Each structure stands twice: as structure tokens, then as C-alpha cells.
Phospholipid-transporting ATPase
Amino acid sequence: MVLKSAMKRFVYINDDSSQDSFCDNRISNRKYTILNFLPKNLLEQFSRLMNQYFLLIACLQLWPLITPVNPASTWGPLIFIFAVSATKEAWDDYNRYLTDKKANERKVWIVNEGRRKQIEAQDIHVGNIVWLRENDEVPCDLVLIGTSDPQGICFVETSALDGETDLKTRVITSACMGLAFEQLHKIKGVLECPNPDNDIRRFDANIRLFPPFLDNDIYPLTINNTLLQSCYLRNTDWACGVAVYTGNETKLGMSRGVAEPKLTAVDAMIDKLTGAIFLFQVVVVIVLGFAGNIWKDTEARKQWYVRYPSEGPWYELLVIPLRFELLCSIMIPISIKVSLDLVKSIYAMFIEWDEEIFDPDTNTRAHAASTAISEDLGQVEYILTDKTGTLTDNIMIFRRCCINGFCYGNEHGDALKDGELLNAISSNAPSVMRFLTVMAICNTVIPIKSKGGVISYKAQSQDEDALVKAAAQLHMVLISKIGNILEVNFRGTVLQYEILDILEFTSDRKKMSIVVKDCQNGKVVLLCKGADEAILPNAFTGQQLRPLIDCVEQYAQLGLRTLCFGWRELDEGEYVEWSHMFKEANSTLTDREWKLAEVCQKLEHHLEILGIAAIEDRLQDGVPETIETLRKAGINFWMLTGDKQSTAIQIALSCNFISSEPKGQLLFLNGRSEDEVFRSLEMVLRTMKITSSETKDVAFVVDGVALEIILKHYKGSFIELATLSRTAICCRVTPSQKAQLVELLKSCDYRTLAIGDGGNDVRMIQQADIGVGISGREGLQAARAADYSIGKFRFLKRLILVHGRYSYNRTAFLSQYSFYKSLLICFIQILWYFFSFSLFSGVSGTSLFNSFSLMAYNVFYTSIPVLTCVLDKDLSEKIVMQNPQILLYCQAGRLLNPSTFAGWFGRSMYHAVVVFLITVHAYANEKSEMEELSMVALSGCIWLQVFVVALEMNWFTVLQHLAIWGNFAAFYAINSVVSTIPGLGMHTIMFRLFRQQSYWITMILIFAVGMGPVLAIKYFRYTYRPSIINILQQQEKSGGPIYAMAIENLESQLKPMDSDISPLSVTQLKNRNPVHEPLLCDSPTATRRSLGLSAFSYFPTAQTRLSSSHSRNLKNS
């Protein structure tokens, strides 16, 4: 792969002889073909360990010697489950085929032998010249060589590629500038470009046209000279380009792929519980198999009706154990995965249907791209958030500036209305004029003049848009860009500048520059703007920087974004020498960005710092309230931003991210060398340990330079610091550092959620356990890479507290109930082996239940009622939003852990004993048939499970009643029909049982004895030792003024929470001697050590977890 990425391709323009070297433009996103669908799909499904296990069981049942039941009891559900998954895959793949077919057969125009010709898009080859008309979709990746615009520009909509809805400008290469319409049909040349890749932001290539067009000169190409596949040509009559990448080798095609599946905490726990059940199953099989072989060698051979040969085959000892393995295989529910996948898909639909998280401003609904991790939303412990566009609106407004030491806009907060600045402009003050010139022309903004003469601007950066518009309001109006000539109108005077070179902005350089020639006096000037740490160190020797530094700090304290402007007049000889180096670096195909940065630094020095521009980016509505609520829920926040430290701190204060003194304290982690960083880290860590026992809200602040040193040399200490602090502010961080911080927290076994809105947040979003993208002004690139997308940050509160919590609660119940119902039927079988069969046929591994009953039990009788848990709500949405602290139950995994599972395990064992003893006592006599006994036991299981589901539900709807009681009635209806069929071994069974009074008495006894203790325990817990959930449920049911008063009292009780638990909150819950739920209950208070009368004592033991703040350090230590 490395060798391939270092290679390059040569594309000969308009040359049919070289077209066969590359793939055609046929698009194929299909996963399967008709021939490979069945084997490939089966291979994928059987790659899962659980499916392999069930396949092994099903194959063993084909061995007549060991199978105690009809193989259909396992093969039927297995085939049904695989058929459902395969059908879904086939349907999805068929839809992909239809989409591909439509795209491949679309008509396009190309140039062939000097004439335009219409063909299908799939027949385009590399090197063809493709013609586009307005609103046409770009069929492949093109290098732009001509447009209808005299400036050589065109406009494209890239929303299908990166989600950005604003039109982008693309420009033809300077090699093709000025070519006539007819010449474009006959153009010849060669493109030197890298092999296909998926980087839609970068295209480092060169073009060389053959004579007579140009004399083999090499011209560099960038991404701004391309039209990428699936973009649309807008506001341009026509454009043409050379096909460089086609088919699945386009940048979009290379970007397609299946994201790595994410394993939720619930799924991980289910896998562990499944492994534990399997080990238990192995033990049971060994014990029963051993007993069976002893019985066979001792008692069985004495019975006249048992005919064992004196010498059996070599596998004789395995027959009875394997028979028991088949009978005990139902301990692991075969339907659990399908059930979980189904309910998780419904959770995702609930999110998308939720009107409360619909953004009317942008007409954006929440979208769940991943349907498998909804329950993880309820277990989030760390939220890592971007700032600009995520916490703020990303609507930039020019507010203040400092020019030549004078600050403007201080009185009214608006420099555009500052009389002193307007007077300085009127008097043509040189420093102000240069400052405005940089504002107007040091950018990549394209001015567009309408037919009415109104000028609008197309900018790819909100900062540049704000600066150009502000300059226009201050009479320095950018009016046109034609080729390399731009014009500025200042008070009626048109000033012309020739653009010589553009030194583009990168996240590493943190600045952009432009070299222009002033057409008024012929001087060559470098204009530069960027972050203060990138511009101020390059000031000329002797310039007083202290006023500028103070100004930057002052603006940052106001929460404003700052940009520094620089200026340098260049000597012509210096520029010519540098220009050769720049052209050489700009023409290389390998490490172009790094080489360009090195060359740019040779010019961007000895700058005259003109001043500072301050831009306001307002907070989104509801951000402070959302952060405050989620912090109450025990969630820790980290802000990861590229802004300077002071700006980030002010934004953090304004949005309740951190608390001001004296309630809060900020610890600064700075340094430029390893020693400085080590001392700073050591001091911050020591302070954090000392203050962790106090109620003060402590946060640490670190910048990108220090962070780079820390992640390289002091990662262990930083992890300790991270686990001690609820809040962190990381400034001047790069996209890769954002992803590294997410990975660091994940390595400590914390559930992380990353949220952002721009392309620089994609790596962080993809790295986190849950990625949330905001459909913002920077486009949809983050939203498309995320698991969930929302319109505004404030919707995150409902996404976590309502959808995340409900999903976790429902999944916890569904998964444990699935095991419960399987264990119940299996335990009855085991009891039958030990007791009943020891009296009749010994420990031989014969099944109590017939094959039809076992198959219907898992597929029909017990699956439908439990699926109604997707509608269950223990508390209303209003109460959940008002009491975010209850999310701690989910974060701590209180509803699904080994202890709660042990409760369900014990419940299944107890119910199995009840069903077995009562059934045997009532029907195990000479007059009762085996089929009657089996059906009575099965009926008892159904009765218990119906009432277990009904008891566990908190919120009933008509649909739930129909599913629970309708399925109960369907059990009797199905078996009544089956009883009329002679060949199934159940002929007339149900009709005989219906007439027996003892049957109904047995069912009532099973219900009373089985559910009585469960009801008693729940009543005791609910009445005498209620959890906060129970208290809220009681208050909600009471309603009226009493309810409102009770909620107010409850909130006052919950206020000591922060002081009792300390700022560390739920992040200490996992590996700190956890106290799990008792058997047969779901309240967190059963085995909790009391903390006194505080309402927070209902939560998991804070003293146990927090007895020492330092003991929280590392989960994996």
C-alpha cells in the first residue's frame, strides 16, 4: 500500500490509445452478486461465534443416535433467523444495484475526435474531456480546463460529497487560461497525478500542455482546479474537464466503505454473560453425562427392556453427554440477537421521529446512522466537544479591532460604528488603510456581481466572510476578481492588485498569506493574517508587541476570536528567488504540503504587525442549560478547540462549562520543553489530588504544544490527571490530538461521546464510542461521519437523558429476560432428568417437551410480549429531564451486571422448581400421559412469563396489552389447533386438559407460588426501601399540587449530591468495589451502605467509591 501510494499516474488528455490502462467509469457499490450471495452471506453470518455454536448444535441433532428431539426444533428457528438477516441484506443490496444502474446509464457529453458526443456515464474513460451544463452532476473526477466565465471560475455544490451546502468556487488551471472554446476540443497534454485516494481536500498534481498550446511548461494543480464526482455545476452555463479518476477509483468511490462496528457496553456484558452460561452449561453436561454413563453401566443393563450391546463403538461414552448438550443448548437463547437488533432499530426510529429534537431553523431532523449503539447514549461518562460551530453558532461578526496601538469599538462593542475609526478612514490614515487592505484582499473570497449591480461574496471561511463584509462597510469594497487581477473600490477610487502567489492556510501553519503587486505603484507586497502565535513571533526586530499582546488578551477575555494582520514590502530580487522555490515546491507530488510550508516560512518573517481584528461567534441557544443539566447527570466535559487559551476559557465560563471563583478553580498546564511541562504537570496533579476532597469545581487547561509533549512522554501521569478532573479545556489542538485524547479516555474504560460540526472533528467523532455530528454551517461532513446527527447542541440533552436512558433500560430488561425464559425451560428439563427419569427411564437424556413445543416456545410463545418493552417508560420524559441525576443508574450499569443477571438466573431456577414440583405432584401418576405432563409444565412456564413481563412493565399502552394478553390467548389457540392434528403427538391433549379442574388449579398454584415471593419482595422494596426512581414514580402517580410540591422537595434533597459525591461523579463507578443489585429486584438501594438521610443516599455507595480521591486514578491500574 505504501509503495502504491507513492506511485503516480500519467493521464494523456484526449488520447484514446491510453484509455485501457485504467478502469472505466462503471460504479458498483454492490456487496453481492447473484452467484456469490448465498455463500458470502452465510460466511458472514457464521463468522459470529454464537451462530457457529447454534450451527454446531443443529448439525449434532442430525445424528439420530444422540438427538432427543426432532432436529426441526433447532433448524427451524436457525433457518428463520438466518433468512430474516439474509433477506434484509439482499434487499439493501438490490437497492444499491438500482442506484448504481441509474448513475451508470445517465447520459453525458464527451469530446471524441474533436467533436462532442453523447454517451452513458459508465463509458467515460480516463483522459476523456467531459462537458457539463448548468445543474449537471459531475460523473467522475475532472481537472477543470474551461468554463463559460471569463474569469475561468465556476461554482459547484458539494453537498453530496462533504455535506457543505454553500457553493464552492473552482478555477481552471493557469495553463488553460485564455484558451478559446474551439481550442478546448483539440487540447493535448499530460496530467501527472498521484494514484487514487480518498482525500477530498487534497489533489497534488501537475499539468503540461503540448505545443501549440504551451511549450511543455509544468503548472501545478490543487483541489481548487478539480470537479469531483457527485458534485453539481451551479450558476455556470458550461464547464469542461479532463477525467482523471473514474468508477470506484474516484475520491468519492475510494471514500466508500463499511465503518468498523462499535461494541456497546451492554453488548460486551451480554457476551460475558453468554460465556458464563456456556461454562455453566458445560459443567451441567459433564455432570449429567457422567451420571448417565454410570446409570447405563449399572442399572440400565439390568432392565429387560434396555438392550445395550456388550461392546459398543469407540464413541459410546460420548452419546449421553452429547444428548444432554443438545437438551441444554437452549440455555443460550437463539433469538436474542435478532430481538436486540429489532428493538435497536426501533430505538433509532424513535430518535428520528422525535419532534422535540427537530431544528426548525435549518429544517433538520435528528438522524441515527447507527442503529446498534443507542443504549450507549445512556452510559456516557465523558463528552468531548468542539467549540466553534458546536457550542457557538459559527456566525462571525466583526466587533473590534486594534490598529497601530489604538483600539476601536470598546465603547459600544461595534468597531463599525466607532467615530474615531471612521474619522481615521476619512483622513486616509496609512496604518488604517493598510489594515483595511489586508481585510479586503488577503483571502480566497470570490465577489459576485448580480445583474442589478449588487455585490455578494462566496467565502469558504466564516472568518473571511466577516472580514470582507466589514471592510466593505468601512468603504474598502472588494468588487471583482478576474484571473489574477482583483479590484477594490475605496470611496469611489478603484484600486487594482495583481495576485502573484497565494500561501494557503493550513492547520499546522495557522496563517495564510498573499503576495500581490500594487498596480498603482508597482510594489510587491506580502499580506498576512493568522493566529497571534503564528504572526507575532514573525514581527520585525524592534516593533513594540506588548500593546498588541495586551489587546489580544483583552479581546480573548471578552470571548472574541482574534486574528493578527501583518504586512511586508518585498524586494523584487528577493521575491523572484523565492518564487522559483515556491513553484518548485508547488510542483512536487510527494510531501507537497510540508515542502510548501517550509518555503512559505522563508518569506513570512520581519512582518510589520498592523493590528488585531476581533470577531464574535455567539453561543447557541440553550448551550449553558444543556451543559449544566448533563453535568448534574454525572457527565464530564472536555472542550477541544483550536482557539487560543483566553478565548476558550471565556466561552467555557459563559456556557457553564466551568465555574468562576471562588466556586471553581482553573489549573494551567503549560510549557514549551519537557522539563517545563513535567514540572507543570506534577504541580497540577498534586493540586488536583489535594482539592479533590473539596466541593470546589476544579478544571485544568492545556495547550497544544504542552499536550504534544505530554502525550509523547508523560501519558501515564496525564491519564491520572484526566481521571481526577471533571472538566478540561484543551486549546490550540489539532484534529489528530483530538482523536488521541478520545483514545486516551477510552483506554481507561470510560464511555466517550465526541461532538463536533466540521471536517476537523471527523477523526475525533469516529474514534469515540459515540460520535455526534451537528449539521452546521461547516457542512455535513461531521454529521455524515457520526453515529447520530442533530441540528443544535441543546438537543444532546434529550438525546442522552431520554433516548439513551430509555434504550439502556429496555435493552437491559430484554437481554436478561431472554436468558430467563431459556433457562427456565432448560432447568425444568434438568430437574426432570434428575428426579422423574431416575424413576422411569434413568438419566438417559430424553426430552420432556416435544419438538414442536420447544420450537414454538422460543419463536412464538415468549418473544412477542417482551418486544413491547420498546414502549416501556419507568418515568415520563418530563420527570427524566427534570431529574438528570437518575442517569447515574445507567452509567454505573446498575440494571445489567453479573448481580442483576444472577437475580434473573435465580428467578428462573426458582420458577423451574415451582413448575416442576407442582406439575409432578399433580400429574405424575399412572393415569397421566407423558404428553399431558409436558403440556402442563409448558403452560405453567407461559403463565409465569406472562405475569413476569406484566410485572416488569412500568408503562402500559393498548399495544402492550394486546401483545401480552393476546399472545397468552394465542398460546392456547395454537395448541388447540395442534391438538386436532393426529400426527404431531399432541392429539386431543389440550381439549382433555381444558375439561380437567386439576389443570386450572395447577396453573393458579404455579402462579401464586411462583409470583408470590417476587411480588412480596417488590412490595417491600417499593414501600420500605424505595430508590429515587421509586420515589419519583410515586410522586408522578400522585399528581396535582402535591406532586409538584414533592418534586420540589426531592430537588432540594438532591442538592447535596454534588458535595456528597464530589465532582468526580459517576466516572468512578466501574472498578471501585461495585455493589450490585440483589436477586429478584432492580433497585440500587438493596445492599447499599447508608450515607445518612440525604436523598442522594439512594444512589450507589459514594463513600465506598470515593473514600479516597486518589484511589480513583486508573481503572486499568
Observations:
- The radius of gyration is 36 Å.
